[in-house]
Each structure stands twice: as structure tokens, then as C-alpha cells.
Write a structure and sequence with these properties.
The chain is an alpha+beta fold and 256 residues long. The protein folds into two domains: 103 residues, Phosphorylase Kinase, domain 1 (2-Layer Sandwich), CATH 3.30.200; 122 residues, ATP-grasp fold, B domain (D-amino Acid Aminotransferase, Chain A, domain 1, 2-Layer Sandwich). It is built from six helices and 15 strands. The strands form three sheets. Strands 8, 9, 10, 11, 12, 13 and 14 form a seven-stranded antiparallel beta sheet that branches. Strands 6-7-3-2-1-15 form a six-stranded mixed beta sheet.
Length: 256
């Protein structure tokens, strides 16, 4: 059966956004493409798009159940989900629970060292500049987010962290750190801040609680091998691994 033709709105490193079936919606398509180190390393993780679609769907639904608003509407098929069209705030919010990655290098801490409390950092979402770290002062001074928007983002971030740490701990995973993005959702004349993008092993560091085995994109970043198996293991523990496995699915036909 021929898939419907959709207009491409935007293509990022891991996803493509297409025009949605009704006003105010988009179709978010998950690719198998993988990048690391500010796009310097590129590759393909077979089936990643299928797994991230399922994992992100599961997590977004659980977050909405506890009152965290998101752009997610529903999953459409193996690689696509319907989302609300939001105005993305160009700030990445990073939560650190355990020292890892560049945080370990910046503070000369051994990777895996527990932090005294969860630490929230901000980065300006700009690939050309290498997503530089910024402060709340930068964010409000440059108008990327108003102080009240930032308050909402911080509140939702900390609530999400508390929930996800418990969710992953229950399946034997340690939430080391993760990245969130937010958007402005306009409904009539009212605006609210909602969680956007995705939550998956692409955007989280997840380690096995007992062995500290990495089950996330770090396996791709650092050539650790068994990358596909790591994503599958996270999906399996969450109970969302497709019965037929992460089979491929042809992307939607597009028009310019």
C-alpha cells in the first residue's frame, strides 16, 4: 500500500518532522542515524528509530500520567508518532545524577562518582557553536525564555528526574544523566511550557545497576560494540521491545 505523501518540515540528526494530518500537529519520524561529538562522528544503529519510538512513547505516556505536559499525542506506527506542533525553546536542559562524560573531565571526577545532589545545566541549542553551556542569565537576557518559562522548565525537569530515576531503578538501570528539550504550546490565546523531543537511550545515560554496563549511545560514541543490543535491552526491560524485533520500516514519501 502506498504511503501518503507528506511535506517535510524539518530534518535533524535523529528525526524528521513532517506536516501532520490536522492543524497544530506534526508527524515525528525516528531515523537510525547516529551522531556524536557535535556531529563529528556519524553512523547507523540498525533498528534504533523503531526502539526509540517505542521507548519515548512509553516514557512520555508515563510522564503525562503524573501531570507532566508533553507534545506527545500517540504512536502512529513502528517509526512515527503524532506530536503537537510547539515552538521549541533553543535551550537544552541537562540533569546530572552521576559524574560521567564531559562533566567528569571538567571537574576531574572519576566517571561513576555519585554527585552530592542532582545538578541541572543549560546549553544553547546551536550546532554551529557546539551547543555551548549557558547560565540562566544568558537565557533570560537573550530572550530564549522568560524567567517564568525557565521556572516552569526547571520544575518539570526536576519532577521528570525524580520520576525517571525511580522508573529505571525498578528495572535495574541507573539514570546517570539525561537531556530534555521544551517547547511553547499555544492553545487559543494561552501558552504553556511542555516537554518536547524524545526521551530514549539517545538522550539518556543508562547503566546497569549491578555491573555499570553502559546501555545507551555511549556504546556508539566510544566504540564499545553491541550498540543495537544495548538499545534492545532497555526496550526489553521496559516491556516495549517489538515482538518481531526492531524491524526496519520504509520512511514516508515526502514532497518539497
Amino acid at each position: 500500500m502506498q504511503r501518503s505523501r507528506r511535506r517535510r518540515i524539518y530534518e535533524g540528526k535523529a528525526k524528521i518532522l513532517f506536516e501532520g494530518p490536522e492543524p497544530g500537529t506534526l508527524v515525528q519520524y525516528f531515523k537510525d542515524d547516529a551522531t556524536a561529538f557535535n556531529n563529528q562522528k556519524k553512523g547507523i544503529i540498525t533498528g534504533k528509530g523503531v526502539l526509540n519510538n517505542r521507548i519515548s512513547e512509553f516514557i512520555m505516556e508515563r510522564l503525562m500520567e503524573i501531570g507532566v505536559p508533553t507534545h506527545f499525542v500517540r504512536r502512529l506506527n513502528m517509526r512515527e508518532q503524532l506530536v503537537r506542533d510547539v515552538e521549541i525553546i533553543p535551550v537544552e536542559v541537562i540533569v546530572r545524577n552521576v559524574a560521567a562524560g564531559n562533566f567528569s573531565k571538567r571537574f576531574k571526577m572519576e566517571e561513576g562518582s555519585p554527585l552530592p545532589r542532582s545538578i541541572v545545566e543549560f546549553c544553547y541549542k546551536n550546532d554551529d557553536l557546539g551547543d555551548p553551556m549557558v547560565t540562566e542569565e544568558h537565557i533570560t537576557a537573550f530572550g530564549w525564555a522568560a524567567p517564568e518559562d525557565l521556572d516552569d522548565m526547571l520544575h518539570l525537569t526536576l519532577r521528570t528526574n525524580d520520576f525517571l530515576r525511580g522508573l529505571f531503578r525498578a528495572i535495574g538501570l541507573k539514570l546517570v544523566d539525561f537531556k530534555l528539550e521544551f517547547g511553547r504550546l499555544w492553545e487559543n490565546e494561552e501558552m504553556r511550557i511542555v516537554l518536547a523531543d524524545e526521551i530514549s537511550p539517545d538522550s539518556c545515560r543508562l547503566w546497569d545497576i549491578k555491573t555499570d554496563e553502559k546501555l545507551d549511545k555511549d556504546r556508539f560514541r566510544h566504540d564499545l560494540g553491541k550498540v543495537e543490543e544495548a538499545y534492545q535491552e532497555v526496550a526489553r526491560r521496559l516491556g516495549v521491545l517489538p515482538a518481531a524485533g526492531p524491524m526496519d520500516l520504509e520512511g514516508p514519501r515526502t514532497v518539497q
